[in-house]
Amino acid sequence: MSAARPVRRAVVVGGSTGIGRGVADAWAALGIETHVFSRSRPAGDGGDRLVWHHLDFRDPEQAKEALRAGIPEQVDLACYSAVYFTATREPFTQVSEADWLDQFAINVHGLSWTLRAALPALREAGPGLFLHISSEVVYNAGPNRSGYAATKAAADSLIRSVSQETDPARTVFVQALPSGMVDSPGIRARRSADFDYSGYMSPASFAPLAAELARTRGVPYAGDALVVDGEGVWSPVADGLPVSQSRPLAGRS
Questions:
Q1: Number of independent structural domains in the chain
Q2: 86 is a domain residue
Q3: In sequence order, which residues have a C-beta less than 8 Å from that of residue 38 and are 6 or more positions away?
Q4: Does 247 reside within a domain?
Q5: Among 4, 61, 121, 213, which residue carries the largest CB count within 10 Å?
Q6: Per-residue pLDDT tens over the stretch 13-68
Q7: Does residue 235 lie within any of the structural domains?
Q8: What number of other Cβ atoms are within 10 A of residue 161's Cβ?
Q9: What range defines the domain where residue 124 resides?
Q10: pTM (whole model) above 0.90
Q11: What is the pLDDT of residues 172-205, one digit of tens each?
C-alpha cells in the first residue's frame, strides 16, 4: 500500500480579487489547499474553495499576527499580490500623506512581513516557490504615479535582494507582471460607469502561469520576471520591456 500523497498548500496575500484571485483560483482548481489573506472575503465562483484569513496591512500588528497564525508550517507555493494605488493619478506634490504612506504599507512593508512569515514554511517544502506580482511601472516609471512607481520598484529590489540571500534549493523566487491593464475591482473604482473594459486583461490570464509554477515549483524560471499577456502566454522581461501604461501630460508645472 503506497503512502498517501502529502497535501500541497499555498498562500496568496491579496487573493480575494484581481491577479491574486486568478492565481488563487488556479491553485485551488489543482486541488491545492489555498489560503487567502485579504481585507475582504473571496466571493463569487470558487470562493468557497479558498481558506480565508482577514488581514489589513493598515493595521501592522493585526497583519503580522494574521500571517503568523494563519500561514501553515509547510507551504509549497506563496504569492504576494496585495497592492495599493491612489484613487486618481496625481502629481507628486498633490499626493496626500495618507495615500503615500498606504502605498508603502501595502506595496513594500506588507511584502516584507509576508516574506518574514512565509520563508520558513517555504524552506520546509524544499523548494518552495515565492511568486511576487510586479508591474511595468518598475521599468517605465511615469508621471502622476510617483508613489506607485517608487513602491513597486522597492518591492522588485527587495525580492531580487532576498533571492540572492536564499538557497534556490530551498526557495525559488519568480516575479510576474501583466502586459496591460487588468480588469479588477480596484481598477473599476477608478473608472467611470460607462468605461469599456474590452481591451483589458482578465485575472484568469494568470491561471496558466500559476499552473505551470505549481507543476515546476518555478525552478525553470528562478529569478525571472515574466510578462503575462491576455492570452495567458508569458515571456521574460529581458526579452522585451512591457509597454508603459502611463498617460502623457498635457503640460508641466
A1: 1
A2: yes
A3: 13, 14, 15, 16, 17, 20, 52, 53, 54, 55, 82
A4: no
A5: 213
A6: 999 999 999 999 999 999 999 999 999 999 999 999 999 999 999 999 999 999 99
A7: yes
A8: 10
A9: 9-239
A10: yes
A11: 999 999 998 887 777 777 777 878 777 788 999 9
At 109, which CATH number? 3.40.50.720
Chain centre distance of CA 212: 16
Three-state SS annotation for the chain: CCCCCCCCEEEEECCCCHHHHHHHHHHHHCCCEEEEEECCCCCCCCHHHEEEEECCCCCHHHHHHHHHHHCCCCCCEEEECCCCCCCCCCCHHHCCHHHHHHHHHHHHHHHHHHHHHHHHHHHHHCCEEEEEECCCHHHHCCCCCHHHHHHHHHHHHHHHHHHHHCCCCCEEEEEEEECCCECCHHHHCCCCCCCCCCCCECHHHHHHHHHHHHHHCCHHHCCCEEEECCCCCEEEHHHCCCCCCCCCCCCCC
For residue 162, is it within any domain? yes
Quote the CA–CA distance of 210 and 27 in Å, as a whole number: 7
Cell of 191: 473608472
